Amino acid sequence: MKDFIVTPWEVSGDVDYTKLVEQFGIKLIDPNLMKTIEQISGSNHPFLQRRIFFAHRDLDWILNEYQQGNKFFLYTGRGPSGDIHIGHIMPWIFTKWLQDTFNVELWFQMTDDEKFYFKENLSLEETHQLSYENALDVIAVGFDPKKTFIFSNIELANTLYRHAARIAKKITFSMIRATFGLTESSNIGQIFYTSMQAVPAILKSLIEERNIPCLIPHAVDQDPHFRIARDVLPKLGYYKPASIQCIFLPGLKQQSKMSTTNGTDAIFSTDSAEEVRKKVGNAFTGGRGSAKEQKELGGTPDVCSVFKYFFMMFILDNEELLSVRNECLNGERLCGECKSILIEKIVKFLRHHQEKREKARSILDKYWISEKIDLKQLVNKK
Ligand code: TRP
Questions:
Q1: Is the pTM for the entire model greater than 0.70?
Q2: Does residue 16 sit within a domain?
């Protein structure tokens, strides 16, 4: 088997998610837990049924607290290093479902500091500017402005830094080296950074001066950060943050993770219909060498990136998905047909997203919080 690597900065190779669960020490979301979610929410999101959100830490605990009236808040984030692609949007769609279903706040961190430390070619001004641009995509997903707080680490530093300092004092370089594989020659911003990513997990507790459970929806590569947060925060008197973790939306060319550095592999939130047509047109499929062969032998949907996109985002109805799969296996359906359907679905999705994204410019201040705002008052107001 090919080797794979998953760290917060690198996802490569063929990711074996079962192995990852073992390596990371996270838990699979089992049928019992799924049933609990269904009981509480009255519904079950396809991303859960399909194991796209597949793993967790302490989700059972946080649901139990919720049932007893101890409400949690959500925390997630984005490293603003470039444009948003649909692989980024996927977990946010689920996060919105969590917000709506449990009627809870979302605290959203833009890590402009992180991307400055980790990206050779980006200035701090650029990553900071990108945090506003990326926030438009977050807002376009439809989060409730009354319950959603978006902030940049650089801008909210006065609030965040004092708590990051308390956290950083409890983390040694050898913990960081072991968890992230950083080395003696890594810049010291990188070594410090994980303490900034831990702070939002206690931000609401700090503002309200009581301990409030935190649930973090995130892609599985972020787990190492929260492993450290879970180790340190109880030492400062807070709950361990719980998490619910998803797999990556693969690239269109067979990669494990859609990547921004590979422009033709990713569908960006601002892509035109023409660009979508071109990219999906060139996607890797499970098709045979010729139409004749495919009609005889059938296609192989399980390796097909177009089918993966149906599965993960664009055909959420189980019966519809199954019939696409069967028709492919039986040779009744050729790749061109699937590609046209996917193009149509992505274009429709993006048209809607882009409209909301433009509208977001004028309502950004309903979501954005900065040092100028007294956080305590803000919470009372909302
Ligand atoms: N480090 C993340 C990234 O590079 C951004 C991030 C910050 C985040 N806080 C988070 C992601 C919480 C998920 C959950 O994208």
A1: yes
A2: yes
**Boundaries of domain holding 187:** 5-252
CA-proximal residue: ligand 1, atom 11 (nearest): 77
Residue 214: predicted pLDDT:
98
Instruction: Name residues contacting ligand 1 (CB within 6 A).
Output: 8, 76-79, 109, 111, 114, 197, 216, 218, 222
Using most ligand atoms within 8 A of CB, pick from 194, 218, 257, 259 the residue to mutate for ligand 1.
218
256: CA distance to ligand 1 center in Å? Answer: 19
Nearest to 14 by CA among 257, 262, 265: 257
**Among 40-49, 51-60, 216-225, 233-242, whose mean pLDDT is lowest?**
40-49
Total tally of structural domains belonging to the chain: 1
Q: Report CA torsion sign: 301, 303, 304, 309.
A: positive
Confirm whether 361 is domain-assigned. Answer: no
Tens-digit pLDDT profile for residues 77-98: 999 999 999 999 999 999 999 9
Judging by beta carbons within 10 Å of its beta carbon (0-12, 13-18, 19+), is residue 39 exposed, middle or buried? exposed
Which CATH number characterizes residue 49's domain? 3.40.50.620
Dist. CA 9 → ligand 1 center (Å): 11
User: 204 versus 259: which is more confidently predicted?
Assistant: 204
Classify residue 129: in a domain, yes or no. Answer: yes
Residue 247 inside a domain? The answer is yes
